[in-house]
Amino acid sequence: MRKKEIRVALIGHKFMGVAHSNAFRNLSMWMNLPVKVSMKCVCGEDSEENLSIFAERFGWESWDPDWRRVVQRNDIDLVSIATPNFLHKEIAIEAARNGKLIICEKPLSNNLSEAREMLDAVERADIRHCCGYTYRFTPSLALARQLVAEGRIGRIYNVFVRYAQDWISDPNFAMVWRFDKKIAGSGPLGDLSAHSIDATRFVTGLHFKEVSGNLQTLIKERPLDSAKPSGSKGSVTVDDVAQFLVNFEEGATGCFESTRLATGRKNYNTIEVNGEKGSIFWNFEEQNSLLFYDNQRSPKESGFAKINVTHDMHPYNGGWWPQGHGIGYADSFVIEFGLFIKSILENAAFNPDFRDGMECQKVLEAIEKSSVTRTWINLSQI
C-alpha cells in the first residue's frame, strides 16, 4: 500500500484511550515510519467540554461524540477502538463496512459469537486488523518466544501463569462498569487471563486442547457511591477470581490464575515455562529483563540467569535508548501500532489480529462453561 498519510480516529478516551493517544503521538518520533500519522478525531460519550480538553491535551485535531458519524468520514483511514468491551463488536463491524483499518483492544469481544462476527466482518471487507495484545511487544516476552522457538528449553512440560492485581481488594471500592457482565463480559477472566492466554500462545506455540475452570465472585455487592460506602449497593455480576487448568494438544499442562483481589500486587503479569532443557520466567513488572534457566550448564554454574533485554540485538532493538536504560508500558503500544502500520504499508503479515482475538475468546468461553458444568471442556466442543 502506497500512502503518504494515515488518518486516525480514536473511539474511547479513558485509560486505554490515553495509551492509544500517546502511541499515535509518538509513532513518527520512534518508529521511523515512511508515512505521516495524523490524529484526526477523538470520539467518546462525554461532555463537549471534556472531549475538547482531551483532544487538546493529547493532540487530536477534532472531537466528536458520535462514533457512527466518525467511522463514515472520508478523512479517516484507521479506527482505533479503546472502549468498554460491549461496544467493540458494533464499532468494528461498522468500521469494516466503511473500509477502515482497525485496531481493537482486547478482549476482542464479550463472547465467542461476537468475536466470530467481527472476524467475519473484517475478512469480508478485506481490511487489515489488529487485536491489542500489547504485551507481545515487550522485548523480554518476545525474547522468551525466540528462546522457545530455538529449542533452548526443549520439550515443554508445563506452563504456570499468574496475573494478579489488587485495585479492587477493598470491599468499599464502588461499582464501576467492570463489575457489570453486560458491559465487561467477565471480570479478571477477560480483563487479565485474556492476556495470559495470548502470551502463552505467543511464547510457546502450544494449542489449548481442554480446560477445567473455577470462577468465583468473592465480593458480591459493592457501594453504588464511593462517598457513601454504607449506602445503596449494586450486585457484582462478574468473577473476582479466575482459575483454570489446561491440557495442551502437544501434551504439556498448564495452571492459570487471574485476580484483582491480590493485596499488594499491582500488575503482576507473569508466565513461567518449564521444559526438558530449561525454563523461562517473565514478569511484566520487571519487563526489561527475562529469567532463563539453562539445564545444559554444569551444576557449578546452574541457576536462573537474568538477561537484560535492552540491547539492539534483542527483539524490537530492545527499545530506543542505550543499553541498560529500558523502556516502559507506554512504549509497547508505540511498537505495536508502528509495526501494524508498517505491515500495512509493506503488505506483510501481522499478529495479533482478530483471529488471535477469536482464538483467545474460544478459550475464555470454554473456561466459563467449565466453571458452570464443573467438568473438563474440550475446545472442539466450543
Description of the structure:
By secondary structure, the protein is an alpha/beta fold. The protein has two domains: about 5-135, Rossmann fold (3-Layer(aba) Sandwich), CATH 3.40.50.720; about 135-355 and about 360-375, 2-Layer Sandwich (Dihydrodipicolinate Reductase, domain 2). It is built from ten helices and 17 strands. The protein has helices at about 15-30, 50-60, 65-70, 90-95, 110-125, 140-150, 180-185, 190-205, 330-345, 355-375, and strands at about 5-10, 35-45, 60-65, 80, 100-105, 130, 155-165, 210-215, 220-225, 235, 240-250, 255-260, 270-275, 280-285, 290-295, 305-310, 375-380. Strands 16-15-14-13-7-12-11-8-17 form a nine-stranded mixed β-sheet. The model has no long low-confidence stretch (mean pLDDT about 95).
What is the count of β-strands?
Answer: 17
Q: How much of the polypeptide forms β-strand, as a percent range?
A: 25-35%
Helix-strand category: alpha/beta
- CATH homologous superfamily heading of the largest domain: Dihydrodipicolinate Reductase, domain 2
Q: What's the structural domain tally?
A: 2
Q: What separation lies between the terminal Cα atoms?
A: 37 Å
Write the CATH fold name of the largest domain.
Answer: Dihydrodipicolinate Reductase, domain 2
Q: What spatial form do the alpha-carbon principal axes imply?
A: globular
Strand order of the largest sheet: 16-15-14-13-7-12-11-8-17
- Count of helix runs: 10
SSE order, one letter for each helix or strand: EHEHEHEHEHEHEHHEEEEEEEEEHHE
Mean pLDDT: 97
Strand count, sense and barrel status of the largest sheet are: 9 strands, mixed
Mind telling me the C-alpha Rg? 21 Å
CATH class of the largest domain: Alpha Beta
